[in-house]
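User: Please fill in residues for this 206-position structure.
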């Protein structure tokens, strides 16, 4: 009986390890197949013309309005112009794809922008909610695309005023400043404003 219980415990540990190893795509050197399918659909639907200003949520999307302002720099810290920025996040109810996460195969609230000469971009959207199961704090995902640096995952950016953001996440963000993954949100005239700094890596991720 002890051997059976130990065997079951070992299997459970392996399953948990596999689950967590496929969770955040931006921490992996190889894209999770399910994430890559969503990405390919998003890229196939990318507008043919991009500007430095884009939208993630339609104007009539329920939720508090949010403005995301960002700047992308090269690995050397210089402004990176002409970088395609893809972003997505959960909706007001904490879902990625719609009610019960079954309405779509790719992300529902997502969009594209192209950095200007100063490497800047912005997205108008709504403030994302934490995961509907309460597993993690509210956050925004970013992916960068360019001829020079390929396709790269940028750090996920969590909203600093969300109590679900852990002390360890905040510590790591402080160490990576100004490119940290936890950033403050300022409320200005009823609009939540989030500023993001992203530094490109030398090589592509996927």
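Assistant: Residues filled in for all 206 positions:
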């Amino acid at each position: 009986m002890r051997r059976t219980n130990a065997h079951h415990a070992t299997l459970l540990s392996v399953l948990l390890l596999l689950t967590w190893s496929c969770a955040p795509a931006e921490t992996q050197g190889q894209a999770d197949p399910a994430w890559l399918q969503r990405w390919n659909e998003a890229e196939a639907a990318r507008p043919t013309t991009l500007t430095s200003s884009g939208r993630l949520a339609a104007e009539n999307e329920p939720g508090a309005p949010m403005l995301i302002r960002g700047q992308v720099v090269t690995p050397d810290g210089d402004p990176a112009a002409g970088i395609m920025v893809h972003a997505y996040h959960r909706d007001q109810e904490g879902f990625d794809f719609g009610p019960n996460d079954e309405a779509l195969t790719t992300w529902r609230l997502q969009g594209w922008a192209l950095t200007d000469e100063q490497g800047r971009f912005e997205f108008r959207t709504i403030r994302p909610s934490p995961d509907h199961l309460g597993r993690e704090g509210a956050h925004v995902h970013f992916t960068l695309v360019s001829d020079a640096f390929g396709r790269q995952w940028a750090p996920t950016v969590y909203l600093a005023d969300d109590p679900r953001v852990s002390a360890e996440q905040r510590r790591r963000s402080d160490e990576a400043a100004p490119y940290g993954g936890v950033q403050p949100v300022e409320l200005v005239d009823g609009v939540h404003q989030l500023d993001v700094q992203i530094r490109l890596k030398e090589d592509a991720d996927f």
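For context: Residues 1-28 have pLDDT under 50 and may be disordered.
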